[in-house]
Write a structure and sequence with these properties.
- The complex is a heterotetramer of chains A (313), B (485), C (662) and D (220).
- By secondary structure, chain A is an all-alpha fold.
- Chain A is 70% helix and 1% strand.
- Chain B has a domain at 271-485.
- Chain B has a two-stranded antiparallel ribbon.
- In chain B, helix 3 (64-87) runs antiparallel to helix 4, helix 5 (122-140) packs antiparallel against helix 10 (240-269) and helix 9 packs antiparallel against helix 10 (240-269).
- The longest helix of chain B is centred in the middle third of the chain and has 34 residues, at 146-179.
- Chain B is globular.
- The two termini of chain B are 28 Å apart.
- Chain C is mainly alpha-helical.
- In chain C, helix 10 (245-270) packs parallel to helix 12, helix 10 packs antiparallel against helix 13 (334-369) and helix 12 packs antiparallel against helix 13 (334-369).
- The N and C termini of chain C lie far apart (58 Å).
- In chain D, helix 1 (3-28) packs parallel to helix 5 and helix 2 runs antiparallel to helix 3 (60-88).
- The longest helix of chain D has 29 residues, at 60-88.
- The chains are: A mainly alpha (313), B mainly alpha (485), C mainly alpha (662), D mainly alpha (220).
- At the A-C interface, strand 1, helix 3, helix 4, helix 5 and helix 9 of A face helix 15, helix 16, helix 17, helix 21 and strand 3 of C.
């Protein structure tokens, strides 16, 4: 039963991912006074790409060919760590968030290699910028996890979630605030949204993620896009689970699950709107301001860890 | 009677060799005489090992300590003379530079050094010690070049003055002994002194005074800093075999004398005073020589300073005392002699092939003189005290003693200087071995079988003693230590 | 001493490597005999692996005592710790030997080959001696020989002046380190009257605190020098790159670990923890080492130098684990101490695997293209597929990606750092968790660094003629690399195989370190993850699709050449920019001709790191020593009267001393 | 103390006064020949002292020693020196590096120092202080001469003076060592001087001067 639900929520994460993209895009369109495409547009995009033929650059080695598959595999795996409707996940285990973070890193690693293998200038450029951002983003990412883990004295995501769930919603500690701030910033950086990266640009000066995937096309591109969508979704879901877990089904009752599901939808859509607001509200940072952005995130997360000492509970 | 044999052989040998004008004949004769010499010494050592003490008349005696030094003399002089037989093949120009003079003087030199070890009377010992200076001064100045003459003069002057103080020390000790009521005839006999000391109360102040003068005097011959000034000059300018003899035998003989006095004085006024002095001189010599090694330009000067440093190590071992300290010191004396003579031999070959000892002029040895470079590398590794060579063992013993006596300052300085010396040696060694081939193409890299064999023997000895000390040798060292305690 | 079968096998190993193989390889020129001897080396190393594994399982202490022959007690014994490191040495030695079998033979002339082989085999013996010695004397002999032989091997590669200078620096620093090690051994002497490990262990309780402090400091200095902790690391990036590649593999992969062994032996076995502050010191130094190490690595474009710096970084990670473990010990939390120690040791093991693989790979590259300068490489993946694949595995492992061995050890260290929070009311409570951030930063930078390595060297278009013409290397070399790659993957996917025994090992050194259940979680979660990832990957890989090779699009630019690719330098540029305070770069742009700024014929750009430990620390020391020496030299005036004066003054001084003494 | 001892004590001290006189003259003398003469006078005094000691202590050996001194130090060595000087054709100026006035002051200081030095020993051996101070003063003077005179021959002379001091010390404190030792010592001195002579010739031949302060090729 439990395992079944875990699998289901993982699948929800994966299959719902394009929808999330669509919704965010739609919100942005709304904020920009456009009436944008339907929220299901990403699905049709993927379908179209899957049907297209696959064009490979002459320099492409086996690495170039396999990167999208590996990326997709790791991202799927990442999705299996996040609790959605109940405080447990398929791959939940002690110290799993280290694995979580490093699986994401793995995906990025291979994507950067793929960018290099294209043999054009853009791939390397994207890879180099991605390397900068990701290497600086890992520390705050892990530190905010650590802060929460210390607070909850649980070394796994599910544990933290269930502990937070038992807390009174009104006595959230400073640690939570700090951790949320830094984690949110990290999410923006990791998923390549404004103000760190512009997911829609194809301008040399600005593109990071797009630079790496420039040479991909057809099904491979589809896989990459889908993977990044899944990444975004699981990140948002993670934020939800870690900081607003209330309403999850603590006991395995069918009713609980069916109550938790729409609640989750509500919570995550709030986040999506927020994201849309941020994206349309802020201009993209200059490349060399991104480190400061992440530096702030790191400082905040370090503060969070330090505050755990003061937090008597 | 056997005790007279080596002395007579050496003396007569000196005369006999002078008789042969032909180089080859003189060389063969010299080798023959050396053989006899070594044989007689071996017999003596054997008998001492069986009976403990050998004595002839009132003036000749051998015990464990002296027999240890006799072994040293026998081994090294054997190596050196065989090497010299090849080295002296092209005689220098000018008077008194023909091989026969060389051998004659060498035998005189040997005679004096052996008799230092044989003499039972401190006065006689002093006379013979002065004799070593006189006998070797001409050898140092043998080549009659500017450098040689200068070095010879300095050697003669400095050592004679130093030795004069040793005489004064001897006199003071004699005075103390006589005042304590000893029979004036035996008052300088070390055995008699040793057995009299416990009974009679010596004027401790006079004894200390005596030791101060003696350590300054004989210390000049050992090359303790700051009396060492003659040593690098003499070693650098003397013919290579003589340099080997100087640093591998002469210094040890002087050390032997100091050991005798050390034993006596420790009996009289307790070990604290003499050991403190030895430690002071030892550490000073080590530090100063170790630093000076860094800034040398001439290979043989470098080795001379390293000899000073090693004498410092020996002095530290003696100064620490204790079973490991003494064992280490004695073992180190032997190991250093072997290693240093190996180094001097290879220096000799470099001199022959490159025509210079300036280390900046010698490059690319590894290619041009493979065998010599192997010898040089082995010798240097041994001398800087790296395993698996024998000096590592003795230095390790002395260090262990220092640590187990909690003499941390000495130990730390010891380790530091060893690193410095290592740095100096490696630096120059790498520069000589590597690099492009020299402009002045070496004569011929081939070694004579004689040079070849002695280097081989020395190298193997170094390696072997590093891995395993023969039991008989350990026993002999034990006997020597028994005398010192 | 009953010569059990294991003892016999061990002695056989020593005899083969130490005496037989070098002798044969020096003596004979015949191809067949050489091959036989090399095969013998491989075989004996495999035997060594079995011996180590056996000793490891059933705590059976091999004991070889030759004290009867040697001047000081000389015994070899294999307890669990020794067994672990013996396993490490032999495991790496096998592939490296196989690799060299073809590498050495087509790189050097006949005479050099003989020397290299003899030294290589002796080098292995010396390292085995170090980790199996059970008296101080034996340990020190092995320790010094190890240095000498490796230096000899480096010299055999070439003797240009800067080569010589690097070797000199290496030897000097090693000797200074060895002096510190000797000191830390002998400091035990007054208390335990022999340097037998057992008796040291027994008497370490009665050693006063001050001496314990001294022992720890000396051991940290000595072994830190060998391990290459910043700022004692300067020899490492100079000595490792200039060795023959298989030798650099051994030096970086194995020799550094002997230092880790020594440190663990001293701190955990002899001192059982060291003073309370020691853990924090180690932690701090380790963090600095890891961070700076990887930053310097990022800035390098010479592959072997880059790898050397990344060795510095990994040593930092290992000592991070050790420091954590020491802190836990000091606060008497043995379980976590055990876990941290396990992490450190496992990382040592893993680093041995992937770092030697990387160096072998660089050897293969240099064989194929005659260069290891990243700017000259590119597109090797399609030309040397096997080398590329193995190198990819190595890069993933060293970047700490899941499913590869590097991640496992880093995870364990992360886990124990996180557990620092249980030490309520101590500094460690915050410091250790914060270290997670540092380690994460190191990990991220390492990933970036090795994206650069693999991406620039193996992917895209070849940047030079040589890279264009590169050919795959011969079978022996490929085999050697593949073995190591396999090891990396196996450890990475089935961590339990190694973690469980490791944890059981720690009962010996960390009393009360029960098997922490946490170690098991990774052990069972990783295989599942691997299954999912691979499953999905393969599944989507087999989806049917039409493919066509067209020219690179690149936003439609025509006439794309390899010069337009991102170079290694510019790849690391953003990071170098962010951390410019670390590099303090001195940039210089020359335009020719200088008068036309906009239409230059040639533009050259240099950016050199100006932060230098030599300038800051070592040169001043050297200058002090040398100036002292020159002062003394001046006192040796050559004037005999001055000499005589010295003598008289000495006498007068001594007389005065005598006068005032009583 | 007894009359004889008292008398001898007086004699000894008077001898030492003469010795101090020679010392002062030695340090101021500018000509080599003068110094040699002074040395032989000094040795003569010592010989007399040895004779006196022999007479007082009824020591046959002492007489022999006295005779040896007269033979070697009073006659043989000075003659040898003059011969050497003639053969080397060296200028009789000895290149002092100190002016006579300074030398006198230094000599005086040394005499005073020697008295100060023997204070503590005077009691332990039953001889008057000045008898003990003389040898010390001689040793110091020898040292001073060797350090301050650049001429090779002069250094040899300084060495001899130093030797004299040591010998005198032995004589006054212990009435001389066993005869054979004494003879050996004399023998050594002779050989030593011979060698130094040889080297003096060699220096002259290779450097064309006898100024040892200029022998500074080997240093460092």
């Amino acid at each position: 039963m439990k395992t079944a639900i875990n699998i289901i929520q993982a699948l929800l994460l994966i299959l719902g991912a394009p929808l999330v993209r669509g919704i965010v895009a739609r919100c942005k369109a709304f904020l920009q006074r456009r009436q944008g495409a339907s929220i299901f547009r990403p699905y049709s995009d993927l379908a179209k790409l899957f049907r297209k033929e696959d064009l490979l650059p002459p320099t492409a080695s086996i690495v170039f060919r396999f990167v999208p598959f590996l990326l997709f595999g790791t991202t799927i795996c990442v999705a299996a760590f996040v609790p959605l409707v109940q405080p447990s996940a398929l791959l939940a285990s002690r110290g799993d968030f280290f694995l979580f973070v490093y699986l994401l890193a793995m995906g990025r690693f291979f994507l950067s290699l793929g960018g290099f293998d294209g043999g054009s200038a853009f791939g390397g450029m994207g890879a180099s910028r991605e390397a900068l951002i990701s290497s600086l983003a890992e520390a705050p990412f892990l530190l905010s996890f650590v802060a929460l883990a210390i607070l909850a004295s649980h070394a796994d995501i599910a544990g933290i979630v269930s502990w937070t769930q038992q807390q009174n919603i009104f006595n959230i500690s400073a640690v939570h605030m700090l951790a949320f701030t830094s984690l949110a910033m990290v999410v923006i950086a990791e998923t390549g949204r404004m103000p760190v990266d512009n997911p829609t640009t194809h301008l040399e000066l600005t593109m990071i993620h797009e630079g790496m995937v420039l040479e991909y096309s057809g099904p491979r591109l589809a896989l990459i896009e889908w993977a990044s969508a899944v990444k975004l979704h699981s990140m948002l879901a993670l934020l939800v689970a870690l900081f607003f877990p209330w309403g999850m089904a603590s006991s395995l009752s069918v009713g609980g699950i069916f109550l938790a599901l729409p609640l989750y939808g509500a919570k995550v859509s709030v986040l999506m709107v927020l994201l849309a607001v941020i994206e349309s509200g802020m201009a993209k940072l200059r490349m060399y301001l991104v480190p400061d952005f992440l530096g702030v995130a790191s400082a905040v997360s370090a503060l969070a860890v330090i505050f755990t000492m003061l937090d008597k509970r | 009677m056997i005790l007279l044999a080596p002395l007579l052989i050496a003396l007569l040998g000196a005369l006999v060799v002078l008789g042969f004008r032909n180089h080859q004949v003189a060389t063969r004769a010299a080798l023959l005489i050396t053989g006899l010499e070594i044989a007689s010494l071996m017999v003596i050592i054997r008998q001492v090992h069986e009976r403990g003490v050998l004595q002839v008349g009132r003036y000749l005696r051998v015990d464990g300590l002296s027999s240890f030094f006799l072994i040293n003399i026998a081994f090294i002089s054997g190596l050196v003379l065989v090497y010299a037989s090849g080295y002296m093949r092209h005689p220098g120009e000018g008077r008194f530079t023909s091989p026969r003079w060389f051998y004659a003087l060498v035998f005189l030199f040997l005679f004096t050094m052996i008799s230092v070890c044989l003499s039972a009377n401190l006065g006689l010992m002093w006379i013979m010690m002065e004799g070593t200076t006189l006998a070797s001064a001409l050898l140092v100045g043998f080549y009659n070049t500017k450098g040689a003459v200068e070095a010879g003069w300095k050697y003669l002057m400095v050592c004679t003055v130093g030795i004069a103080f040793a005489l004064f020390g001897t006199i003071v000790l004699y005075l103390a002994a006589v005042k304590a009521g000893m029979n004036p005839d035996t008052a300088l006999d070390w055995a008699a002194l040793m057995e009299a000391l416990p009974r009679m109360g010596f004027d401790s102040h006079l004894v200390k005074l005596a030791f101060v003068f003696v350590i300054v005097g004989y210390g000049t011959k050992i090359g303790f800093v700051p009396m060492h000034s003659w040593l690098p000059d003499a070693h650098a300018e003397a013919p290579t075999p003589v340099s080997a003899l100087l640093s591998a035998v002469l210094l040890n003989c002087a050390m032997y004398a100091v050991m005798r006095y050390d034993a006596i004085v420790s009996h009289a006024v307790g070990a604290a005073f003499p050991h403190t002095l030895l430690l002071i001189f030892g550490v000073m010599s080590m530090v100063v020589a170790g630093l000076l090694i860094l800034v040398q330009r001439n290979l043989k000067r470098l080795m001379a300073y390293s000899s000073i440093e090693h004498m410092g190590i020996v002095a530290i071992g003696l100064g620490l005392g204790g079973p490991l300290g003494l064992f280490g010191a004695l073992l180190h004396i032997f190991n250093h002699s072997v290693g240093k003579s190996l180094l001097f031999f290879s220096a000799g070959n470099i001199r022959e092939n490159f025509g210079t000892l300036r280390m900046d002029r010698v490059t690319g040895m590894a290619r041009t003189l493979p065998q010599t470079s192997v010898a040089l590398v082995v010798g240097s590794l041994a001398i800087v005290g790296l395993p698996p060579f024998s000096l590592f063992v003795s230095e390790f013993a002395i260090l262990s003693e220092a640590f187990s006596q909690r003499r941390y300052t000495v130990a730390v300085l010891f380790l530091a200087v060893l690193s410095v010396v290592f740095g100096g040696f490696t630096y120059y060694l790498l520069r000589m071995l590597c690099g492009d081939d020299p402009k002045s193409a070496p004569a011929n890299g081939r070694l004579l079988p004689s040079e070849y064999s002695v280097m081989g023997i020395a190298g193997i000895c170094l390696l072997f003693f590093g891995v395993r000390i023969p039991h008989i040798f350990t026993v002999i060292i034990q006997d020597a230590m028994a005398v010192l305690r | 001493m009953p010569l059990g079968s294991i003892d016999f096998a061990f002695c056989f190993l020593l005899a083969t490597l130490g005496i037989f193989a070098p002798f044969v390889l020096m003596a004979s020129q015949a191809k067949k005999i050489r091959v036989f001897a090399i095969a013998l080396i491989v075989a004996s190393n495999i035997i060594g692996c079995f011996v180590a594994a056996l000793c490891f399982w059933r705590q059976s202490v091999v004991f070889v005592d030759v004290s009867r022959f040697t001047p000081f007690p000389f015994t070899l014994g294999i307890d669990r710790l020794s067994a672990l490191f013996l396993l490490l040495i032999c495991t790496v030695a096998v592939p490296v030997t196989i690799f060299s079998a073809s590498y050495v033979d087509d790189h050097y002339g006949q005479r050099r080959q003989n020397w290299i082989w003899a030294f290589l085999s002796l080098f292995l013996v010396s390292m085995i001696l170090v980790v199996t010695a059970s008296t101080g004397f034996a340990f020190l002999i092995g320790w010094e020989l190890m240095t000498l032989l490796s230096a000899g091997l480096v010299l055999l590669e070439g003797d240009s002046p800067e080569h010589r200078h690097n070797v000199f620096l290496y030897l000097l620093m090693m000797h200074a380190g060895a002096a510190a090690v000797i000191g830390s051994f002998l400091l035990f002497l007054p208390y335990s009257h022999t340097l037998d490990f057992a008796s040291i262990r027994a008497t370490s309780g009665v050693v006063p605190a001050g001496i314990r402090m001294l022992v720890f400091s000396l051991a940290f200095l000595g072994f830190g020098t060998k391990a290459g902790l910043i700022p004692l690391h300067i020899w490492l990036p100079r000595a490792h790159p200039i060795a023959p590649s298989p030798v650099s593999a051994l030096m970086s992969g194995v020799m550094l670990k002997t230092a880790v062994y020594g440190f663990v032996r001293f701190v955990f076995d002899f001192l059982s923890g060291g003073p309370w502050w020691s853990g924090y010191v180690v932690l701090l130094v380790a963090a600095v080492t890891g961070l700076l190490g990887i930053l310097y690595a990022l800035a390098e474009n010479d592959l072997k130098r880059l790898l050397a710096y990344s060795s510095v970084e990994n040593v930092g990670i290992i000592f991070l684990g050790l420091g954590t473990s020491m802190i836990f010990l000091a606060h008497s939390a043995p379980v976590w101490a055990g876990l941290a120690l396990a992490g450190a040791l496992l990382h040592a093991f893993n680093h041995a695997m992937f770092k030697s693989l990387l160096f072998l790979g660089s050897g293969a590259i240099s064989k194929a293209t005659q260069t290891v300068d990243l700017e000259e490489l590119g597109g090797l993946q399609s030309r040397m597929p096997v080398t590329g694949a193995t190198m990819l595995v190595a890069c993933c492992s060293i970047a700490g990606l899941p499913l590869f061995n590097g991640f496992v050890s880093e995870w364990v260290i992360f886990r124990s750092l996180l557990a620092g929070a249980v030490l309520i009311g101590t500094k460690a409570q915050v410091i250790l968790p914060l270290m997670v951030g540092i380690l994460a930063l190191i990990g991220g930078l390492a990933a970036a660094c090795f994206v650069k390595v693999f991406g620039v060297a193996f992917l895209g278009r070849p940047r030079s003629e040589a890279a264009e013409q590169a050919q795959e290397v011969p079978l022996a070399m490929r085999a050697g690399m593949s073995l190591l790659a396999a090891a990396c993957i196996v450890i990475g996917v089935f961590p339990g195989l190694f973690l469980r025994p490791l944890v059981s090992l720690l009962q010996v050194f960390v009393p009360g370190a029960g098997v922490p259940p946490e170690t098991l979680s990774i052990a069972h979660i990783i295989p599942i993850t691997a299954a999912i990832v691979l499953g999905v990957t393969i599944a989507v890989a087999f989806v049917k699709r039409r493919e066509r090779v067209v020219r690179t699009w690149a936003c439609g630019q025509p006439g794309l050449t390899s010069r337009m690719q991102y170079t290694a330098t510019v790849f690391s540029k953003p990071i170098r920019f962010v951390f410019s305070s670390v590099y303090r770069p001195n940039r210089k742009i020359d335009r020719l001709p200088s008068d036309q700024a906009y239409f230059p014929v040639s533009v050259t750009y240099r950016s050199v790191r100006t932060t230098s430990y030599e300038k800051a620390i070592y040169r001043p020391i050297a200058e002090i020593v040398l100036s002292a020496a020159n002062q003394l030299r001046r006192m040796q005036t050559g004037n005999i009267q001055v000499y005589l004066l010295y003598i008289f003054l000495t006498l007068v001084l001594l007389l005065a001393f005598l006068r005032f003494q009583q | 103390m007894g009359l004889v001892a008292f008398a001898t004590g007086k004699i000894l001290s008077s001898f030492s006064v003469f010795l101090f006189l020679t010392i002062l003259l030695l340090v101021v003398s500018r000509r080599f020949s003068t110094s040699v003469m002074l040395f032989s006078v000094q040795s003569a005094i010592i010989a007399a002292e040895a004779f006196a000691t022999g007479f007082r202590e009824r020591l046959a050996a002492a007489y022999v020693v006295a005779a040896l001194i007269v033979l070697i130090k009073v006659i043989a060595i000075p003659c040898a020196f003059f011969g050497l000087a003639n053969h080397l054709k060296t200028s009789s100026d000895m290149k002092a590096s100190t002016t006579p006035t300074q030398s006198v002051f230094i000599a005086a200081a040394m005499i005073y120092l020697s008295y100060a030095a023997v204070q503590s020993y005077g009691l332990s051996v039953h001889v008057p202080d000045d008898a003990l101070a003389a040898p010390v003063a001689l040793i110091l003077t020898g040292a001073f001469l060797m350090v301050s005179r650049n001429k090779a021959l002069m250094q040899m002379l300084g060495l001899l003076v130093l030797e004299n001091g040591i010998f005198l010390a032995a004589l006054t404190t212990t009435f001389g060592m066993p005869l054979i030792i004494e003879i050996g010592v004399f023998f050594d001195i002779l050989i030593g001087l011979l060698l130094m002579g040889i080297f003096a010739f060699r220096i002259r031949d290779t450097f064309d001067h006898l100024d040892v302060s200029k022998l500074r090729r080997l240093r460092g």
